[in-house]
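Suppose you are handed a protein chain with no further information: no name, no annotation, nothing but its sequence. What can you learn? This example shows the usual starting point.
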Amino acid sequence: MIDKVTGGISGVQSFTRLENQASEEVKQIQAQERQHEETTTKEPVTKEKMEDVVHGMNEFMSTSNTHLKFEFHDKLKEYYVTIVDDRTQEIVKEIPAKRILDMHAAMTEFVGLMVDKKV
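A reasonable first move is to predict its three-dimensional structure. Written in C-alpha coordinates, the prediction is:
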Protein backbone atom coordinates (compact mmCIF):
# COMPACT_ATOMS: atom_id res chain seq x y z
CA MET A 1 0.00 0.00 0.00
CA ILE A 2 2.82 2.40 0.88
CA ASP A 3 4.49 1.60 -2.44
CA LYS A 4 1.36 2.67 -4.30
CA VAL A 5 1.21 5.97 -2.42
CA THR A 6 4.88 6.79 -3.02
CA GLY A 7 4.54 5.79 -6.67
CA GLY A 8 1.54 8.09 -6.97
CA ILE A 9 3.45 10.96 -5.39
CA SER A 10 6.40 10.57 -7.74
CA GLY A 11 3.97 10.40 -10.68
CA VAL A 12 2.35 13.65 -9.57
CA GLN A 13 5.76 15.26 -9.12
CA SER A 14 6.89 14.24 -12.61
CA PHE A 15 3.59 15.47 -14.07
CA THR A 16 4.03 18.80 -12.27
CA ARG A 17 7.59 19.04 -13.61
CA LEU A 18 6.37 18.39 -17.17
CA GLU A 19 3.60 20.93 -16.75
CA ASN A 20 6.10 23.55 -15.53
CA GLN A 21 8.44 22.82 -18.45
CA ALA A 22 5.58 23.16 -20.91
CA SER A 23 4.47 26.48 -19.43
CA GLU A 24 8.06 27.77 -19.56
CA GLU A 25 8.34 26.78 -23.22
CA VAL A 26 5.06 28.55 -23.98
CA LYS A 27 6.32 31.68 -22.22
CA GLN A 28 9.57 31.57 -24.22
CA ILE A 29 7.68 31.21 -27.50
CA GLN A 30 5.37 34.08 -26.60
CA ALA A 31 8.37 36.25 -25.71
CA GLN A 32 10.00 35.41 -29.04
CA GLU A 33 6.79 36.30 -30.90
CA ARG A 34 6.52 39.62 -29.07
CA GLN A 35 10.16 40.39 -29.85
CA HIS A 36 9.59 39.50 -33.52
CA GLU A 37 6.53 41.76 -33.69
CA GLU A 38 8.50 44.63 -32.17
CA THR A 39 11.36 44.26 -34.64
CA THR A 40 9.09 44.09 -37.69
CA THR A 41 7.47 47.48 -37.64
CA LYS A 42 4.64 47.96 -40.08
CA GLU A 43 5.33 50.74 -42.50
CA PRO A 44 2.48 52.05 -44.60
CA VAL A 45 2.96 51.08 -48.22
CA THR A 46 3.37 54.16 -50.35
CA LYS A 47 2.04 54.46 -53.87
CA GLU A 48 5.59 54.69 -55.21
CA LYS A 49 6.63 51.45 -53.48
CA MET A 50 3.57 49.68 -54.82
CA GLU A 51 4.25 50.94 -58.35
CA ASP A 52 7.87 49.75 -58.10
CA VAL A 53 6.75 46.29 -56.99
CA VAL A 54 4.13 46.07 -59.74
CA HIS A 55 6.65 47.24 -62.34
CA GLY A 56 9.13 44.59 -61.17
CA MET A 57 6.46 41.88 -61.28
CA ASN A 58 5.38 42.98 -64.76
CA GLU A 59 9.01 42.75 -65.95
CA PHE A 60 9.24 39.28 -64.43
CA MET A 61 5.99 38.24 -66.10
CA SER A 62 6.85 39.74 -69.49
CA THR A 63 8.23 36.39 -70.65
CA SER A 64 4.76 34.89 -70.31
CA ASN A 65 3.13 37.84 -72.15
CA THR A 66 1.01 38.82 -69.14
CA HIS A 67 0.88 41.77 -66.75
CA LEU A 68 -0.67 42.61 -63.39
CA LYS A 69 -3.52 45.03 -62.95
CA PHE A 70 -4.85 46.17 -59.59
CA GLU A 71 -8.63 46.61 -59.42
CA PHE A 72 -10.64 48.23 -56.62
CA HIS A 73 -13.78 46.46 -55.36
CA ASP A 74 -16.25 49.26 -54.63
CA LYS A 75 -18.48 47.46 -52.11
CA LEU A 76 -15.67 45.94 -50.02
CA LYS A 77 -13.25 48.85 -50.45
CA GLU A 78 -10.40 46.40 -51.13
CA TYR A 79 -8.02 45.79 -53.99
CA TYR A 80 -7.69 42.59 -55.97
CA VAL A 81 -5.22 41.61 -58.67
CA THR A 82 -6.00 40.60 -62.23
CA ILE A 83 -3.49 38.90 -64.50
CA VAL A 84 -4.10 40.10 -68.06
CA ASP A 85 -2.87 38.53 -71.31
CA ASP A 86 -0.94 41.20 -73.25
CA ARG A 87 -1.95 39.90 -76.70
CA THR A 88 -5.70 39.49 -76.20
CA GLN A 89 -6.23 41.80 -73.19
CA GLU A 90 -8.21 38.91 -71.69
CA ILE A 91 -8.21 38.39 -67.92
CA VAL A 92 -6.33 35.17 -67.22
CA LYS A 93 -6.79 35.09 -63.44
CA GLU A 94 -8.17 37.19 -60.60
CA ILE A 95 -6.66 37.01 -57.12
CA PRO A 96 -8.91 36.68 -55.16
CA ALA A 97 -11.67 35.89 -57.64
CA LYS A 98 -14.03 38.84 -58.19
CA ARG A 99 -17.11 36.64 -57.89
CA ILE A 100 -15.94 35.51 -54.43
CA LEU A 101 -15.54 39.15 -53.44
CA ASP A 102 -19.02 39.86 -54.83
CA MET A 103 -20.48 37.00 -52.78
CA HIS A 104 -18.65 38.25 -49.68
CA ALA A 105 -20.04 41.75 -50.22
CA ALA A 106 -23.57 40.38 -50.70
CA MET A 107 -23.34 38.29 -47.52
CA THR A 108 -21.98 41.25 -45.58
CA GLU A 109 -24.83 43.41 -46.83
CA PHE A 110 -27.38 40.71 -45.98
CA VAL A 111 -26.00 40.24 -42.47
CA GLY A 112 -25.98 44.00 -42.02
CA LEU A 113 -29.65 44.18 -43.02
CA MET A 114 -30.53 41.46 -40.52
CA VAL A 115 -28.59 43.10 -37.70
CA ASP A 116 -29.65 46.67 -38.46
CA LYS A 117 -33.32 45.85 -38.91
CA LYS A 118 -35.55 46.82 -35.98
CA VAL A 119 -37.80 44.09 -34.63
